[in-house]
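To the wet lab folks,

You asked to see what we're planning to order before we commit. Fair enough. Below is the target structure as tokens, and below that is the sequence we designed to fit it. If anything looks off to you, flag it before the synthesis order goes out.
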């Protein structure tokens, strides 16, 4: 029996010819706009591709169909992180879960560099001065020569380290176990206290797990240099957010670039919105047409592997 793919109409319209070339016998059930999917179609679905165009507006409808699909065998998501409970529910059902890990590495790493360039030059302050028509000359801080700790050496962290080195920074990576193929000096997680005390920049690009949840706590923040910069493009729960707010508010930390938060959307009353040394972006550091295209490419590669009965990439 051939597979039945569930995907969005947007993805299908864009890549249908490639899908059909890879799997000529594949049947398709599409999520068309926000229309309901018939129960008889839901019962037939064996493969689901959660593409970038479904997030965030159509995510509830898409996931609801997948949760109701009794024959679902394989779920591929455009995201790299799969810490949300819905993904665990698929695995618990015996569904194979794969990701598009690596597809967003370039834009996220570029966003990290944007934060660092902006914070070392106090771009927020310049923008405030521009809005007030004030000629506010000031010195800047160079990235060249700064030591940057990168916690998490997957595709995103590796690209952050590469770009940092290209700008003259000294990257030190950190991961659970050192493989030896990292692009820079790399330490294991047990040396985190040493890392945070000795870097000018700390970047979190690690997945959220039981081991990494809350890894940057109040003690870690207190041991950082007062002019150090903190960047989080992993998950909000990696850091003690109230302690981070206090460190930034009190001047114990030089500044922060944050794309992820403990609660999303970030509540309107969060003090992070108004701190002058913080750049807030709405969990969109990797949102680009290129990311979506690369995520689709990974799914298509995996589809070809499934047809050939070869191992799938990026199994979670």
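Sequence we intend to order:
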């Amino acid at each position: 029996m051939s597979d039945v793919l569930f995907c969005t109409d947007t993805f299908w319209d864009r890549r249908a010819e490639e899908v059909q070339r890879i799997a000529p016998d594949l049947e398709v059930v599409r999520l068309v706009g926000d229309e309901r999917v018939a129960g008889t179609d839901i019962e037939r679905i064996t493969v689901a591709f959660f593409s970038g165009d479904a997030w965030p507006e159509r995510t509830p409808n898409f996931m609801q169909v997948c949760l109701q699909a009794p024959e679902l065998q394989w779920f591929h998501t455009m995201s790299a992180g799969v810490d949300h409970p819905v993904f665990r529910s698929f695995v618990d059902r015996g569904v194979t879960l794969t990701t598009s890990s690596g597809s967003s590495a370039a834009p996220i790493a570029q966003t990290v560099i944007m934060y660092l360039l902006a914070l070392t030059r106090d771009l927020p302050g310049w923008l405030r001065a521009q809005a007030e028509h004030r000629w506010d000359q000031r010195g800047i801080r160079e990235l060249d020569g700064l030591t940057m700790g990168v916690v998490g050496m997957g595709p995103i962290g590796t690209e952050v380290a590469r770009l940092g080195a290209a700008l003259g920074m000294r990257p030190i990576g950190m991961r659970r176990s050192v493989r030896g193929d990292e692009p820079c000096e790399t330490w294991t997680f047990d040396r985190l206290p040493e890392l945070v005390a000795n870097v000018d920049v700390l970047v979190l690009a690690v997945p959220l797990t039981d081991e990494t949840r809350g890894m940057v706590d109040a003690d870690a923040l207190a041991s950082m240099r007062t002019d150090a910069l903190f960047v989080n493009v992993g998950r909000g729960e990696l850091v003690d957010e109230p302690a981070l707010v206090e460190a930034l508010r009190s001047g114990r930390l030089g500044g922060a670039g944050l794309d992820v938060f403990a609660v999303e959307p970030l509540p309107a009353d969060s003090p992070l919105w108004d701190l002058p040394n913080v750049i807030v972006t709405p969990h969109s550091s990797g949102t680009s047409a290129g990311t979506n295209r690369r995520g689709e490419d990974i799914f298509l590669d995996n589809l070809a592997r499934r047809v050939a009965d070869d191992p799938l990439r990026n199994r979670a």
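Structural context that might help your review: The chain has two domains: 4-103+289-307, 105-280. The two ends are 26 Å apart (CA to CA).

Thanks,
Computational group
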